[in-house]
Design brief:
- The chain is mainly alpha-helical.
- The chain has a two-stranded antiparallel ribbon with strand order 1-2.
- The radius of gyration is 26 Å and the shape is elongated.
- The two termini are 47 Å apart.
């Protein structure tokens, strides 16, 4: 005997799943029951509040997409670095050194420029996530884009300054203070990224430390 289940006992997710899989032509009456049950569930204040809460969680659940976006951005930057290195090799001399400095700073320029213009790098565009203002959730300003990357930018500037003290082709004569300074720089850069990940994992909106500094948040588009 074909008896219809009591759909009032189903959750909204279960009802939606049944609706997606039922053959409405073979079971038209049952399809109508499911549609009515979904309508009743959706109009229930408790269910509506739960749906809004889940939508909010999904909107800010960006850790995975941001991770893969960073991989894509890394590939883009690597390609640009390879091009600059090739051009520097062909040019030689002062042009090669200048291109080397540009290569060092290119990620900061890439990130700040694209976040200012679009709220997204190429990686974020591919993964459908976007940086917006934390309060208004509208596009961010140049100042906010810069503040998001201010720590890496400062570290890169310090790296450029330190590189001016490196003797060309005389690695063995590098002063001890410079070696220690470079070690501190490397450790600091690692700790900063670790802090970014920790802060991103332990707040409701997955905001990293740079988001708190700049007043931004990353959302799914």
């Amino acid at each position: 005997m074909d008896s219809s289940p009591n759909y009032n006992n189903y959750t909204l997710d279960e009802l939606l799943d049944v609706q997606n899989h039922i053959d409405s032509e073979q079971y038209p009456e049952r399809a109508k029951e499911i549609k009515l049950a979904i309508s009743n569930k959706a109009s229930d204040p408790a269910t509506k509040a739960e749906m809004e809460r889940q939508q909010e969680l999904d909107k800010y659940s960006t850790f995975g997409p941001r991770f893969w976006a960073s991989i894509i951005d890394g590939i883009v930057i690597s390609v640009l670095s390879a091009i600059l290195a090739y051009l520097g090799t062909q040019a030689g001399g002062g042009i090669q050194a200048t291109l080397g400095y540009i290569d060092t700073m290119q990620f900061a320029v890439y990130s700040i420029a694209l976040h200012t213009l679009y709220g997204q790098t190429l990686g974020k565009m591919a993964l459908d996530v976007k940086v917006v203002d934390h309060l208004s959730e509208k596009g961010i300003s140049f100042k906010q884009a810069f503040l998001r990357d201010c720590v890496p930018v400062v570290m890169l500037i310090l790296l450029l300054i330190a590189s001016l003290f490196l003797p060309v082709n005389q690695v063995g004569e590098t002063p001890d203070w410079l070696i220690y300074a470079m070690m501190v720089f490397g450790i600091s850069y690692f700790l900063w990224h670790l802090l970014e990940i920790i802060t991103m994992l332990f707040n409701d909106k997955n905001r990293a430390m740079h988001d708190f500094i700049a007043g931004t948040v990353v959302i799914r588009t």
